[in-house]
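Components:
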Amino acid sequence: QSALTQPRSVSGSPGQPVTISCTGTSSDVGAYNYVSWYQQYPGKAPKLMIYDVSKRPSGVPDRFSGSKSGNTASLTISGLQAEDEADYYCCSYAGSFTWVFGGGTKLTVL
Amino acid sequence: EVQLVESGGGLVQPGGSLRLSCAASGFTFSNYSMNWVRQAPGKGLEWISYIGSSRPIIDYADSVKGRFTISRDNAKNSLYLQMNSLGDDDTAVYYCARDYSYGLWDWGQGALVTVSS
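Structure:
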């Protein structure tokens, strides 16, 4: 149950795209199409942004998108906005009703 | 509107026990699997336990296996986490979260557990 690997921080200017990677193993990210992404503001509960690798819950802006290739999943935010500045966590199903999170990425909007 | 409200957090001495509760409303609780996720101060999210909706499927992260017990009472729309043999590493905000399609769709506001002498 090792944590998925995310960059500690990423940054981008308003209107620019930014991508956050999430690297796991063939036992979690590579094995299942059950990667989800969460946005968390300081002192707040996480919010689901992407599930099943690339699906967006109702109400999540379409500038948020997800993808996966092999053992690496990615969250892309196109058209970065100031309110997107937050921490982002990936999460993968790891089999036998267990999940594993990434270490989190702090997104800074310049 | 889905609401999840955790309670039962607080200060506990090392080696002590605590029981967290999560009161659910706004959805048919018995139809959904539930999870506990925690976040140590300044750290990332850590999944710690899962319980199925009606089948007795339960699992834990290695970090809490043998010390924590998840349970639910569908008649009371409540989820529980019994935590025993608590250590410093268990200090965290504990969230309950509703599970759907392998994603955690709804989260409570969190309950702070502080393990300290």
